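in:
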């Protein structure tokens, strides 16, 4: 079975493959695009990673991740902003190395509540302020900062931005070419306002990335690993994908799965399963 030309294999799905192996597996499976993570890039060094991406002939659909903006003023917050400026530079370099059509998209995870805090409103305001501090850097680099809302069960420790509507409330304060949103099926499928918010994102040209995987139950003890291959869980990918496409999104569609059993399986096997599952369940 040939891979759909818009399918992108996010590196998280084959977590234990280093960057070079991930590029080789992706290309060998016929997939034309890859979503990268900063840690495997750093393990090689940016200049070497850029050359490996260029040699692979693959598009780069996104780089994950920046963000974690919720610390109060001080050294920790300044360090986070500095790290995000580095991430913007990495995103621009890797996208430029990718094949024609690579999108310079840096996925942002907002960050959870600082230790001892219960102030969700204040944390979200600090996310807005941090994006404002980075917007000029992103614009100059040609990078889109893509705010990813995470399921509310992660609000305390990972992301105080929980819905697509909240992500859009932040993004719409900035230029659409600089700040967009991620529609990640795992995180937003449950939202009764989802279709309306996808349409809103489309009207504003804000969808920077569409990521898919399934919601599987029972949830594991580590809920971060509750993702499954499309078709293995509860998400209506037909309705969701049709809404994203109708909203005007024309970029790559990333398969991003955090699942221990999948991670323990040979990366080439998972790439083949991804191609097959995508063909069966994602109506592109």
């Amino acid at each position: 079975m040939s891979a759909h030309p818009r399918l992108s294999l996010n590196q998280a799905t084959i977590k234990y493959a280093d960057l070079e192996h991930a590029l080789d597996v992706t290309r060998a499976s016929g997939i034309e695009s890859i979503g990268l993570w900063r840690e495997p890039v750093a393990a090689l060094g940016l200049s070497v990673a850029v050359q490996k991406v260029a040699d692979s002939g693959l598009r780069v659909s996104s780089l994950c991740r920046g963000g974690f903006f919720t610390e109060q003023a001080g050294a920790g917050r300044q360090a986070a902003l500095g790290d995000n400026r580095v991430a913007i530079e990495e995103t621009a370099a890797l996208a430029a190395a990718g094949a024609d059509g690579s999108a310079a998209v840096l996925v942002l995870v907002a960050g959870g509540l600082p230790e001892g805090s219960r102030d969700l409103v204040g944390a979200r305001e600090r996310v807005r302020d941090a994006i404002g501090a980075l917007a000029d850097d992103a614009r100059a680099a040609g990078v889109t900062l893509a705010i990813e809302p995470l399921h509310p069960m992660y609000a305390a420790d990972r992301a105080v931005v929980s819905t697509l509507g909240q992500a859009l409330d932040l993004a719409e304060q900035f230029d659409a070419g600089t700040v967009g949103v991620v529609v990640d099926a795992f995180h937003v499928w449950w939202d009764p306002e989802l279709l309306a918010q996808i349409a809103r994102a489309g009207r504003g040209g804000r969808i920077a990335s569409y990521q898919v995987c399934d919601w599987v139950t029972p949830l594991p003890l580590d809920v971060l690993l509750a993702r499954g291959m499309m078709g293995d869980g509860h998400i209506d990918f037909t309705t969701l994908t049709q809404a994203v496409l109708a909203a005007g999104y024309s970029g790559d569609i990333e398969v991003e799965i955090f699942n221990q059993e999948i991670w323990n399986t040979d990366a080439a096997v998972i790439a083949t399963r991804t191609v097959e599952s995508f063909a069966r369940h994602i109506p592109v």
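note: Residues 75-97 form the longest helix (23 residues).
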